[in-house]
Amino acid sequence: MTLGQLELHGERVLLRRAEVADLPAIVALLAADQLGASRDGADGTHGIAPYERAFAAIDADPAHLLVVGTRGQDTVATLQLSVLPGLARRGASRMQIEAVRVRSDLRGLGLGEALLRWSVERARVQGCALVQLTSDKARTEAHRFYGRLGFVASHEGFKLSL
């Protein structure tokens, strides 16, 4: 099922809910980046199984949506959207955007911007009061990108690896 479509220099990129068959392409997008290269990828030790387990959990929960962008038969982008209900802000829901990736040869052409704008509009339609995302401190180019789209670095985030 098509969720939307984006134009990229006269070519159409279709957005749809990811399917388990998309996992190899999604994992390749995750691994093809400065941080993902060391923490993602289907190697000989773990293979694709950890991603299949995560996919099953995401796909089973209606609060989460794993999206792929395709151009023809090629997967060229991905992201995950999660609607988080909360008590803060008078019970407002927020949209969390995670794992935004665009294929390296298509970066800088406007696909990432169109994908984020589509996500923000989806959050509005779903009644979210806020859209949030996190970005590793090492991703300085991504920070400039998000800032250009109106995102503000308003909080300091903390993580604890387990």
What does this protein look like?
- By secondary structure, the chain is of the alpha+beta class.
- It has a single domain (2-148), classed as Aminopeptidase.
- 33% of the residues lie in helices and 28% in strands.
- The chain is built from 6 helices and 6 strands, in the order ββαααββαβαβα.
- It has helices at 23-31, 36-39, 49-60, 88-91, 111-125, 140-148, and strands at residues 2-8, 11-17, 64-71, 74-84, 94-102, 130-133.
- The protein has a 6-stranded mixed β-sheet with strand order 1-2-3-4-5-6, with helices on both faces.
- Strand 1 (2-8) and strand 2 form a beta hairpin.
- The longest helix has 15 residues, at 111-125.
- The relative contact order is 0.15.
List the helices and strands and how they pair.
Layout: E1 2-8, E2 11-17, H1 23-31, H2 36-39, H3 49-60, E3 64-71, E4 74-84, H4 88-91, E5 94-102, H5 111-125, E6 130-133, H6 140-148
Parallel strand pairs: 5-6
Antiparallel strand pairs: 1-2, 2-3, 3-4, 4-5
